[in-house]
Design brief:
The chain is mainly alpha-helical and 393 residues long. The chain is built from 13 helices and no strands. The chain has 3 domains: 48 residues, no CATH class; 156 residues, no CATH class; 165 residues. The radius of gyration is 31 Å and the shape is globular. It is found in: Cell membrane.
Length: 393
């Protein structure tokens, strides 16, 4: 059909009876007005929000299906960002390959030393802790017997012993049941996945340390020229956020572990070193990690040393947490973690649901990095503002 014939038929259709062009414009205006008022804007934003949430849900489900590859990749990326300043320093005096190997071996030695110290300390202190736990359990049992004398009903020693025996028998029955065997097989499979994920993590980490800048430049080569400055700024913000978060959290975790560990050692609480290591590792989960580790240390002190020492340990834990929240966090983590406490809590919850303990550790730095990138693309980042004059020239 030619353009002239199409135009003539269009004009004939417009001049048919019952069709008035002004009325059609008014109807179209009413339709536009329906979507332009408060309810229409709210419906549009709600549909957009539901679409974004659906994409996030699909992505999370996809990540869970390939978590064996995704989680090591994310952990390696965050660790590489934290170690990248050290790699750049070593590159000034040696080749990129030798710099990558030096940083990689140093990081593995430090992490391996922490793990080895934790295992050795637990093995050395375990018999003492078991003995004190048995004594503490006997004290609790005696307290229950003493309290039962003041109750309106009688609770004899035989009944208490029977309840304990029933609990022990229930545990023994579970250990010899088929469910425990299935759980053991599942545990072996999980251990195999953990080993495979750890090996993959180490391999990816080495290549990020060796060729991280080249890999990023390869991705940037596919970006249109007009978007290149913002992509570069987004990458720089992500590296700074990940690196600053890990380094800042490590400093805060070291202070927490040192303060609580010294207090436990002075008070004579068993497993002081492994408990300090647990405090260090748990501090990488913001808001709740150090608190949970402090409660664990208090419980160990309660079982092994009694109420007075446990209260002293609890006071030390509260003091250290207050020092962290009011002094260290604002100074060390001001730029790396510029998120509201509610956002951190929601990120922790969603990360725990999606990825368990590893998800809880990764949720906050990923959220902080996403927010840093959003600020770049919305013109709220200092780095993007600094690049605007250069791009204008």
């Amino acid at each position: 059909m030619s353009f002239g014939l199409f135009r003539r038929r269009r004009m004939e259709a417009d001049t048919r009876p019952g069709i008035d062009r002004p009325e059609r414009k008014q109807a179209a205006g009413r339709v536009v007005g329906m979507w332009g008022d408060f309810l229409g804007i709210t419906a549009t934003r709600s549909a957009q929000l539901l679409l974004v949430l659906a994409v996030i849900l699909v992505a999370a489900m996809g990540f869970r299906q390939v978590s064996l590859a995704v989680l090591p990749l994310l952990i390696a990326l965050i660790l590489a960002c934290a170690l990248w300043p050290l790699v750049r320093l070593f590159r000034k005096i040696m080749s990129p390959l030798l710099a990558a190997w030096s940083v990689f071996v140093t990081a593995i030695a430090v992490l391996g030393g922490i793990g080895w110290g934790l295992v050795v300390s637990v093995i050395n202190e375990w018999p003492r802790l078991v003995q004190q736990a048995v004594e503490g359990f006997g004290q609790v049992q005696g307290m229950l017997q003493h309290v039962s004398e003041d109750l309106p009903f009688n609770l004899s020693q035989d009944e208490v012993n029977k309840a304990v025996d029933d609990a022990v028998n229930s545990v023994a029955d579970f250990l010899t049941s088929s469910q425990f065997g299935a759980g053991a097989i599942s545990g072996i499979s999980a251990a195999g996945s953990f080993v495979a994920g750890t090996i993959l993590l180490l391999v990816i980490l080495f290549f990020f340390l060796k060729d991280g800048d080249r890999i990023w430049e390869f991705f940037l080569s596919w970006v249109p020229e007009r978007h290149l400055p913002r992509w570069r700024a987004s990458g720089a913000e992500t590296v700074d956020t990940f690196g600053g978060y890990i380094r800042g959290t490590a400093i805060i975790a070291a202070v927490d572990a040192l303060g609580i560990g010294i207090a436990l050692a002075i008070l004579g609480v068993p497993l002081a070193l492994p408990l300090a290591v647990i405090v260090f590792l748990a501090s990488f989960i913001p808001m709740v990690g150090a608190t949970i580790a402090g409660v664990l240390a208090t419980l160990v002190a309660l079982v092994a040393n009694g109420w007075i020492i446990a209260l002293v340990v609890l006071g030390v834990v509260i003091l250290v947490n207050q020092l962290e929240g009011n002094f260290l966090q604002p100074i060390v983590m001001a730029r790396a973690l510029s998120l509201h406490a509610l956002v951190i809590l929601l990120a922790l919850t969603m990360g725990t649901v999606v990825g368990g303990l590893v998800g809880a550790v990764l949720a906050v730095p990923l959220t902080a990095a996403v927010w840093a990138v959003v600020k770049v693309w919305t013109g709220r980042s200092d780095r993007e503002t600094d690049e605007e004059p250069a791009r204008a020239e």
